[in-house]
Amino acid sequence: MLKGKIFCKTKIVATIGPASWDKNILKDMITQGMDVARINASFADFDELKRVSQNIREISPRVGIMLDTMGHKIRVTGFNEERKLIEKEKIIVVPDKGENSNQNLDNNHIAITYPTLHQDISRNAHILLDDGLVSLKVIDIKGEEILCEVVQGGILRPKKTVNIPNTNLKFPSLSKKDKLDIKYAVENGFDFISASFIRDIHDIAMVRKLMGKTHIKLIAKIEDREGVDNFDQILPLVDGVMVARGDMGVELPLEDVPVIQKQIIFKCRSVGKPVIVATQMLESMRKSVRPTRAEVSDVANAVMDGCDALMLSAETSTGEFPVEAVKTMNKIAIKVEDVLRPQRVQGYTQVSIETDELCNCIFDLANSIYLKGVIVLSQSGKTSQSLARHRLTIPIWEIGNDIVRIRQNSLLRGVKGFYINDLPDDRDKAVLKSVECVYSHGELDLNDKIAIISGSSIKNRSYNSILEIVNVSDIVGS
User: Fold this and answer.
1) Is 73 designated active site?
2) Is 161 a catalytic residue?
3) Record: fold of 74-163
């Protein structure tokens, strides 16, 4: 990021939309701490994906780009202006026939993007619209028409979500749109694919097969009962996880969500995989320049839970204060991180046992002697994952010659990447160049003491095996 600017160790994922398309706004969001730009494919066509991703790359090659798939999310259609639904009003829900069907609906009808709901739903079931803000109760079913009564009224806007709790819906693993969007992300060098509504290992297998051989990291969005119940089988097969609290809070009892959030974060940390907490974190900042006290506490608690990243959704995609939302989230996280102690976790990651144990040693050292930070030289980037999971209070400077990996590890809490194109193969020369790089960016002083973790000079060594403690002056001043 920018020299002299203080950023939180917890990373910020911000959704890009009409409110943040402008290049100057994007620049300001990056300046205030945006680490990863998320594009929600539910509202984006290929032209938008191309425009936003190109703008991000032109502004900063360090910012990661995430495609968030629509998944088997049901949405309301059939109207273009917001509608007010009144309690006890009768509404007929019908399947969306598509753009070419000449389907004309009056104000008594709402179309949804799930064609066989009339076959799956029963009387007295509830249909929740816009994350549960509007609620309908099924009174009768006649052919494809589902007659409902409004139980909880409110303003309904186009393309808002539909949830049907406690009803077994027959979704395919991947929609046609998801397949096209994933293919686009792979072909155009996105850094992350965030797959919506991951329910089990079969969903993961379908997405992986479509992705093929690619550097892109797969993030599983956990947002319904099946995903929660099968989480222990899903976690080993993905590169990271998003706690998608929007649909989760509708599909599951609201009071379950905070506990599930903490459980998922802990399990992800144990194996060194990044975890994102998402949805309505600063929701009021869509319209207000200041968040509510409850929202500030929500962000702070997610940081204290140990998440790697916090996500902004409508706050930055359609809200009135996208830059202020990023700035506010950064300030909250910094304040919380200042009072946290390192949080060691047990378990082993995808690196070698030796590397995991070296990272455990750094945790102990950081609590017994004063270290300014840790420099990590790693070809795969997995050492940083192992180290970052302990949530050190000191920075982790990752050095690499792969800019894609630098962007992808920008999702890890406390990790700051430095790209060196001509990083030497010789270990001693690589260490010298790495320390000089961090020092030249103003991160270090000559009298600072740091830890360095790196591979051995022995050829064909497959894991990092050297940990040393040095004074910066011994390297830069030599």
Assistant:
1) no
2) no
3) M1 Pyruvate Kinase; Domain 3 (2.40.33)
